Amino acid sequence: MTDMKNKSFLTVVGVIILVFILSGCGSSSKSDGMDMDMGAMTDPITAELSWSPQTAKVNEKVHIQVIVKQKDTNVDKADEVMFEISKEGDSSQHEKVAATNSGDGKFTLDKTFTSAGTYSITSHVTVGPQHTMPTKKLIVTN
Ligand SMILES: [Cu+2]
């Protein structure tokens, strides 16, 4: 009986690990993934997502930016920065766009929304073996 329990426990652990691997945004990591000390020795990266104006208007440009830092240093050589934009309640409006590297740790995207609603914006930031992806809600009004 304990054998059976152990087996199902291992299966659960296996599934959890698999989910973690699959949720890595499909970005190819340049590290071999087995280098345990890499992550521990490197300071974690942070990504600060913001935009202006705070509340957007239909057909008016919104300036989206994410500032990438490692400790207190701006990271201007991120491997990949993508903005994922989706509209709540409308699965047809979903896109993933590469950000423009504006230098000094700033990655930007100018976006004009053509319909009012609540949008979810995620900035996917990859720096070496690290990945961070803050999400915020943007409201677009008429
Ligand atoms: Cu991501």
UniProtKB/TrEMBL annotation:
Residues 43-124 form the YtkA-like domain. It comes from the Bacteria. PROSITE patterns: PROKAR_LIPOPROTEIN. This is YtkA-like domain-containing protein.
